[in-house]
Amino acid sequence: MKQINHVYQQRIFWFLSTTAISLFFVLLIISLGLHLTWKARSVGIYNATQEMDNHMQADLEIIRSLAKKHPKKECTESILKSMRIAEFEANNLYEFGVIKSNQLICTTIQGILSPSRPIAPIDFGNEGDVQLTYNAKVHAHKSDVAAMQIKFEHFRALLNITPLPLEKIEWINIGIFTLTGSGFNRVYGNSDIIPSQAGESMNTINRFEKGYWIEEFCIRKTDCGVVSVDILMFLNQERGISLLLISFIFSILMLCNYVTLNLHRKRISYANQLRRGLNFERISLVYQPIYSLNDMSYNYCEVLCRWKDENHKVLRPDLFIEQVELNGQSRELTEIVIAKTISELKEHDLLGKINFAVNIFPDDISSGHAYKLIKKYLIPEFRNTLTLEITESEVDDIESMMKEIISLRQLSVKISIDDFGTGYSNFQHLEKLHVDYLKIDKSFVKGIESKTIRSNLVRHIANMARELNLKIIAEGVEEEAQLIIIKELGVDMSQGYFHSRPISIGLLKKLLNFENEL
Ligand code: C2E
Ligand code: CA
User: Looking at the 3D structure of the chain, how many domains does it have?
Assistant: First the structure.
């Protein structure tokens, strides 16, 4: 029942992870597509906005100098002339006029108004010295029209911003806003989304809101632009891109599913194959010599198992060991490895002549299984040549582990803590566990010659281990430079491809004879 549940859980896990990965890619690709399409146009929009702003600033200057030149609220030919010149020079302003006691007394087009025309009370937003209003009623020939106006002292002018010289793209909306007393008001464009905050010059904010991808930018604190991209419309209008995106997403989805399903199938298949075929014949052993930096010789090795699947493919433990545990076959494997190691060492006349380490599962110790196996397979005089390697991070119950380790040590078996530094291993536990060896994980040795921060820890670990009277073994030594450094740091033994890859028992024997003769 536990197994069925597990397989079921695995399936859900694969399904969820595939969906999550696919969704991630979908979002990534849509965002990337949008981003690239938008980026290609955004520079143009930004430059055009900047130019529009320059025009506006120049216009404001024109109305300011007009008021400076003609401080009196009156309409003379000279004022009318000045206003007409101003209109000619302005970029976006037209129909300049003079206001006196809420009455428009003359304009550039209509000349002196007689009688003067009252102007409806207008709520001019306060924008520094120049005031702005939106959709104010302006009398135009026969009827009133809504227009934007600006006002400086007694001069006012209508404002008509010329459209930005940009290609019209339906899915992009642009809005240029000015901050007045009543908040942001749009002076140009069709974007209904108003800026979320007044910003500093060039400050750009990106956000998503209700299906829009929005980019805000401010030319100065009071003048900001909003460009919003209607994502659905983008996908609808840019069919080519959408099709490309969809087919790309689809291929990724298929690929993800293919990979994850295959992995899953392989796992299931290994799970079943292991149930049928975890036996003495299918398990083979290789031995990796461990070099003593104190004696400068090989008198120790680690036993590593391999498993032959039904296609006669020999697999390394990374591919099946987890499944062995999930299948509940860890005790079976440990028994096969211990029995086979002893049998091979005996057969090659190496039992008692070399120290050897076997990897076991934490459960083998805490359940007393390891103890029974040693008693069953290893004759007492050779027990002191065996070390059991356990990964301390996997130990759940330190107290019961402590007791079992004491019993094993009474059988003259040594204990080694494997992959030290990768899990939650700590020195407090080590002190309690009374072990013999500490194996520093290969990830610490990697790059030790280039003095990485992680490799600096090796020095620290070595010092602490010495205080606890532990022998230290460095794993994964691949270069001579690494060997020199670990030796300097006081590491006792070295294991890794620099010395030898894991080899068969026959080759191990040859290596030992060769080394001993030297
Ligand atoms: P481990 O105990 O850390 O064993 C060392 C692993 O590092 C071995 O991989 C070995 O081939 C590899 N190795 C050795 N020197 C170097 C080196 O210089 N560079 C690099 N990159 N790798 C090096 P392997 O044989 O694939 O074993 C993987 C793991 O499977 C072992 O890690 C051990 O935890 C587990 N394992 C192996 N045999 C057994 C077994 O019989 N029983 C149990 N329970 N676990 C085993
Ligand atoms: Ca090991």
Answer: 1
